[in-house]
Amino acid sequence: MTFLETIFGHLARAADEPVLGELRNGMIVPVKGAELLAMVAQARVWAVARRLKPGDRCALLAPNSIRWVALDLALMAEGVIVVPLDPRQVAKDWLAVIADSTPSVVCCAEESAAAGIRGPGAPAIALLEEVFSHEPGEPSLVRHHADHDAVTIVYTSGTSGEPKGVVLTAGNISFMLGCTNARLDQLMGSRIEQESVFQYAPFCFAAARILLFTSLSRHTMLLLSTDLLKLADELKLAAPHYFVNVPMFLERVRRRVEESIQERGGFAASLFERARAGFYGQRNGQTRLGSLLALRLAQRMIFPAIRANIGPNLKALICGSAPLSADTQLFFMMIGIPVLQVYGLTETTAICTMDEPGKVEPGRVGRAVPGVEMAVADGTGEILVRGPNVFPGFWQRPAETAKALEGGWFHTGDQGEADATGNWKITGRLKNLIILNSGHNIAPEPIEHQLAAALPDARQVVLLGNQRSFLSALLTAAPESNGAGATWPPNGDSSLSPAKIQSVIDALNAGLPHYKQIRAFRVLPEPLTMENGMLTTMGKLKRDAIAARYASEIESLYEKKPA
């Protein structure tokens, strides 16, 4: 049975039960299984009227919504290949994907989005209002897909170079849903009540889509965020048992909690810090009575209130898309909310490894899911993957497909290592590797994470030095910090002052070999954001774009070798 047949079967059984909802204006707008199937039937009538046939592409440009889900299911049920577009991008990005995927029609939520892609040579455009204006037809059978049939083309985020279309098949997704359901069964146990799941990442990302399909195939109510500016309020309303996160979101939650406790001061702040010392000491095999007593007291007096504020029903937070710092993972473990890391790429149907509940090791991302093989390439340390989760190829890019799948393994471009139990740690990205003119190779991510952890007032850290004689760093200040154009050598005394940065760098350098030591830095006057083109929509650094935009600032760091 394919994933679509599983989903349609579950929706039919949950005909009178809410299965999906939008969070709007402080309320949940739900849809039951039968209602969602009726909407799917409407969209299928539209697709037939449009003469869309199996193998055609249809681009979907809209924020997450019930209608988005219904149209997605309807198109795949008709054999149409869905190409989700990122609603947070701009017209030129949409046009690049449209030109590459050549859809027969682009479905938009709003005329404002449609206006950005209209023009000579543009495909047909349909608004969702039109799609769902048809009377529902008689329920018809879902087209049975062979495992090798393409069902969607998901475009990569383009951290460097242009995005590529990743073709995912019915077999890829059906296999992955078996894995995700099995792991969620471990997390939730033998509960009878319906699960509540929160979703804020757009469905144009493979991980978000897998969570959607998984939720629609199990006893779950999936609640969709409709306003990223109200995430905290929506999260309280949803009260989920689990949801998928990016590290940036969890870092912000952690920072907000810590700042709130520090602002309270007095006994609460003192107890929190002593409890933290007790938690870390306990993990390191130390048993200082005072710290352990403080930890027990905080577990009764402070941590329950923090958990209730984040999500009173949370069984776990799930995190992926980039490595999460071990300190942040430990923070959530300390307050009683386990963070389960997932590692994967769009090309691996979002997932290769998943942490197992109760077997989490901070800083590692879990073992390969059953049925997936992972290995490390000799010489480069690159992670190689093969299994039913690996995509068949990039859309209309045979040369790049052959390179990515050389030798029967998918070459991830990531570097990593597994311990004796098969628990993986991601150490860097090959294309991010910094090669000094001395010949030393340095993965920037571990050093960036160390520096960022030691400088909580820093919002971002970017390590530099490719083909240079030493490493330097660009930093951006958190919104509450003063980061106005600070440069090396140090001066001043703000919360992110050059003096403070230099002190932290000196301490970090003391534990690093000479070629990994940071010799210069600059604090940029603005943060790196999606809006200014320095981050992907999932918060990853666009290193090539950063290097181009701040070329003069970077060059100034190397004009005079620091003493």
Description:
By secondary structure, the chain is α/β, with parallel strands linked by helices. The strands form six sheets. It has a nine-stranded mixed beta sheet, with helices on both faces. A four-stranded parallel beta sheet has the order 4-3-5-6. The protein has a four-stranded antiparallel beta sheet with strand order 16-17-19-20. α8 (206-216) links the parallel β9 (195-199) and β10. α1 packs across α2, α7 (170-188) packs across α8 (206-216) and α11 packs across α12 (289-301). The model is unreliable at 480-494 (pLDDT under 50).
Could you provide a short overview of the structure?
The protein is an alpha/beta fold and about 575 residues long.
Describe the structure using short key phrases.
alpha/beta; Rossmann fold
Secondary structure elements and pairings:
Layout: H1 3-13, E1 18-24, E2 27-32, H2 33-49, E3 57-61, H3 66-77, E4 81-84, H4 91-101, E5 105-108, H5 111-115, E6 124-127, H6 128-131, E7 150-155, E8 165-169, H7 170-188, E9 195-199, H8 206-216, E10 220-224, H9 231-238, E11 242-245, H10 247-264, H11 266-283, H12 289-301, H13 303-310, E12 317-319, H14 326-335, E13 339-343, E14 353-354, E15 367-368, E16 373-376, E17 382-386, E18 393-394, H15 398-404, E19 410-418, E20 424-429, E21 434-435, E22 441-442, H16 444-454, E23 458-464, E24 471-477, H17 498-509, E25 518-524, H18 543-549, H19 551-557
Parallel strand pairs: 1-10, 3-4, 3-5, 5-6, 9-10, 9-11, 11-12, 12-13, 24-25
Antiparallel strand pairs: 1-2, 7-8, 8-18, 13-14, 14-15, 16-17, 17-19, 19-20, 21-22, 23-24
